[in-house]
Amino acid sequence: MQFRGVSVGVFDLQGLFMAKRFIPARQTFRVLPTSVTVDSSSPMSKRVNALPPPGIHRLQRAGMGSELLELREYVPGDPPKAIAWKVSARRDQLMTREYESEVPIRTTLFVDCSFGTRHGAFGQRPLDQIVRLASSIARSAMSVRDPVGLVACDDAEAQHMACGAGDRHFFQMLDRLSKRAISESPPPVRFTQELIDEAWRVCGEIYPELLNPKVNQVPFTWFPIRRGKRLERFRRTRLAAVLTGLYSLPPDQPQNLIFDDVRMASMCQRFLIDAGYSWTWPVVDHRRNELHDWHGKFEVLTDALTRVVARSHDHELFVLLVDLLDHPDPPGRLADAIRLARAHHHRIVVICPCPIDCRPGSIGISNSPLKRGLTELLSQAERARRINSAEKLQRALRRLGVPVAFASDGRAVQLVLSEVELARGGRTSRAGRR
Q: Shortest CA distance to 397 belongs to which of 335, 313, 307?
């Protein structure tokens, strides 16, 4: 979090004059992601201490856990601390306690940090939902001493963090997530009037003195003829002068920024990012034609999942926190990697960021479209498309044996915990299901 300064407004007693100034006082604070506390009373040892089905490997540990398995007669060589003295006194022979072996369930979080998850305001981006859920899942797993690992994937590479447990590992994971949540340089955006309006608003908040007509004056002209277009040209001219002064551009750059839409869009995007505003809209030029390389994201995620499965040893849990709402049909290689993990008897959970009103089962569109405006109708049509994509995604992943949850649903963390409980019990499906 960056604190850039204080905006001060000075007025006279009669309210005739006003002056606004921005006092810079830059400070930077590291804010770790928040997490949701989930009450879970699940035991730390497997309930059924029996041989697992063929192909499921158990982590070999000494059988001195916390759950009592049985009492048997003493055999020479048993440790003295395992002797049940009270039971031995009642039976008049030495008896030994045997405990269930504690088998931790390793959980690996695959976090989608691509450019497609960074659009929107801070705190409302899909990446913010993903980071919040990842920290909640890690906290719930480490509270029962289960090791948790992290794989942060973007459009180009995947960064791995080995599995671990404890408070130090948990805060290191939060620090890694907070660094990945910082807005990086997004792909170049198109020039739109919304971009200019947002840059003008932010500039008026931070540098009001640079927009003062006495300092930043624009010569009057009749062109463009329309008054609204002429006002837009005046704003763009003043904003070009401000950007030239802030970034020490050459003297001829104001004219280039006025008439070059690509250059102006790039500079406005840079100014908004430096001011602490995440501007990556529009992410989609036309439907299904993203400006970021989503093919690269799925390739990186597939390679990371395959690599983790190749290094795994026992019954593990993989949580994919990936934005799949615009791609309800998983690409072929990603589906093959999921099948590979399922063939190794690992459990997989997919959590997709989604607005709260776009989950499957949400209330549909109203039946009175004539009473609504065009903007609201378009937003409802987009909402209906997202609901349809979410339902299609659920059906596609259920065919692979993978449960799906959505980040806006409060039951997402409970779904992961239930999968951990199934893995801890050594079962391959819920009761009554195969």
A: 335
Distance CA 317, CA 313 (A): 12
Structural domain for 245, as ranges: 2-29+188-279
Cβ burial of 420 (10 Å; 0-12, 13-18, 19+) is buried
Helix (H) or strand (E) holding 381: helix 374-398
**Which of 353, 361, 340, 366 minimizes the C-alpha distance to 406?**
353
Dihedral angle over CA of 420, 422, 428, 432, nearest 10: -140
Nearest by Cα to 158 from 348, 307, 295, 293:
307
Check: CB of residue 259 under 8 Å from CB of residue 216: no
Do residue 145 and residue 181 come from a single domain? yes
pLDDT tens figures, 277-304: 766 654 444 444 444 455 678 889 999 9
Query: Which residue's structure tokens are 């997530």?
Result: 177
Within the chain, what is the greatest distance between any pair of CA atoms?
110
HSE-CB for 377 with a 13 A CA cutoff = 8
Task: Give the three-class secondary structure for 322.
Answer: coil
Enter the pTM of the model. Answer: 0.69
Contact 195, 269 (CB under 8 A): yes
Res 111 pLDDT > 90: yes
CB atoms within 10 A of CB 134: 26
Q: Domain end: 237, 260, 279, which one?
A: 279
C-alpha dist (Å) from residue 79 to 82, 86, 103, 142:
6, 16, 21, 30
Return the pLDDT at 152: 93
Domain co-membership, 349 together with 406 = yes
The residue written with tokens 């036309």 in the block is 286
235 Cβ partners below 8 Å, 6+ apart? 196, 200
